[in-house]
User: What shape does this take?
Amino acid sequence: MKLLAFFLRGGSKWSFLLPVLCGVLSGAASTGLISLINSVLERSVAPDTATALRFAGIGLVALLARVCSQLLLNYLQQSMLEKLRMELVQRILATPLRELEETGSPRLLAMLTDDVNNISSSLLVIPQILINAAIVTGCLVYLAWLSPNVFLALMAFTVVGFVTYQLPMSRGLGFIRASREVQDRLYKHLGAVIQGIKELKLHPDRRSAFLEQSLGETTTALRRLNLKGSSLFSAASSWGMFLFFVFIGLMLFVLPAPGAQNGAASLVSYTLTVLYLQQPLDALLANIPFLSRGMVSLRKVERLLALDKGLLEAVRTAPAPRTSFTRLELVGITHSYHREREDSSFTLGPIHLKLEKGELVFLVGGNGSGKTTLAKLITGLYTPESGEVRLDGVSITAENREELRQCFSTVFSDYYLFSTLLGLTPAGLVPRARQYLERLHLNHKVKIDDDGTLSTTDLSQGQRKRLALLTAWLEDRPLYVFDEWGADQDPSFKAVFYEELLPEMKRAGKTVLVISHDNRYFHVADRLLHLEFGKLVSEAEQPPLEARQRAS
Ligand SMILES: Nc1ncnc2c1ncn2[C@@H]1O[C@H](COP(=O)(O)OP(=O)(O)OP(=O)(O)O)[C@@H](O)[C@H]1O
Assistant: This one.
């Protein structure tokens, strides 16, 4: 029911109902056919040309309605697949970063691939189940008309069949749920194959251990669980069919045509009708496992789908980026990471901090002291657990957090480089981008097409970071955050970055927060913020930039 409600909510009701109606029409026509066949066999209808034409007409309706239903269903499935995937991606984009980090990329990937496929496959079987259920109902009504006793006997069998069918089905569902959990682990290992390929290639023992233990154990567990689940589903389905044949056997040999008034002719009619039930019943039983997988997957993505509408709206209707700001204040903000398995936690803050327009601020401190975490809080990527962030005196809440984010251009140490200047296409930008390429000494390596496509991103780490800096530069936001940007640069380019580019940004009125371990260049900063174990331990004002440059 949950699945049905989800589909009906997700699209136009007619796009779902139309294939069902076509299917039901096809089912009704099929039932009409079986009734006609019975009548001809019983000789209650003459096998003349008119009957043959009736037969052909009903058959044609059954066929055309079935084809329409299938075509509409295929269309519905593909558009649902696209819609669901886009919807999930939009919800991922609107989900708080911390929540996504806790979910982890393997689970997100499994949702976007396996779960989306399972849900859309179950979409395809829902109408088929409804269609086959309609055929079964049609046949049952016909059977009830032929003989109420045979109908009642069949219903009694159906109840027994349903109850006994449920037992293996619910066990099977348990295995499918467990296999879906293991699937997340599989994606983690597959990620390790791709990202850890160098380490795996260079170390045979690690490679074998990975193949046998990590990946091997997971794929074996997955195979076993899926096998158990599918076997139980098949067993349940076969049990249903077995009961069906038992019923036919009883009808033929033990209780010859209960309620039969017309002897052999009636027996032929019941048997034929009951036999005709086999195909839709078989399809019904075969489709239920797909439905079960769809339900398991829907539960997996439910949390994303239930995302607060306000968050979704805030991302969909993001404000235009600000061109300037005066002051950003952090008032007693805190953030904690809890590690369940390690029974330890890291707490940043409470942090009190002000960033003014045109300031060049360095954030320094040991590894793990909380610099990146603080940068994520400042940029609005994390929501503080307590305290307040104020932009030009206005408190930042869920409603206006997008406005804060739009103030920043960043290059985090785990930045991502897009292969085009995505979202940056105002006229005159590409010539500026080419100038920056030259300044960043990348003009011999990378070309930028008029549509903003970069000729390559297959560069050295230092060069890739320069390209990321170029994108940030082009965004032209009032606040910049560079997280250990200089770490991959050669000494000459480090000097260009710290002594030319940063002061130039400052002169252009930008506020720049630089996370750095390059103590050779600390003199460039207006202020040094020192973070240790999550606390700001000191804040050092420095003399004016010109004096500092002269001194160095
Ligand atoms: N996603 C996360 N989940 C759990 N703990 C985290 C996460 N990110 C960081 N931490 C922990 O929080 C602490 C601060 O990390 P953070 O990355 O902010 O430090 P940092 O000062 O930027 O370090 P570095 O100089 O090494 O980049 C560390 O102890 C780290 O283990």
Notes: The mean pLDDT is 85.
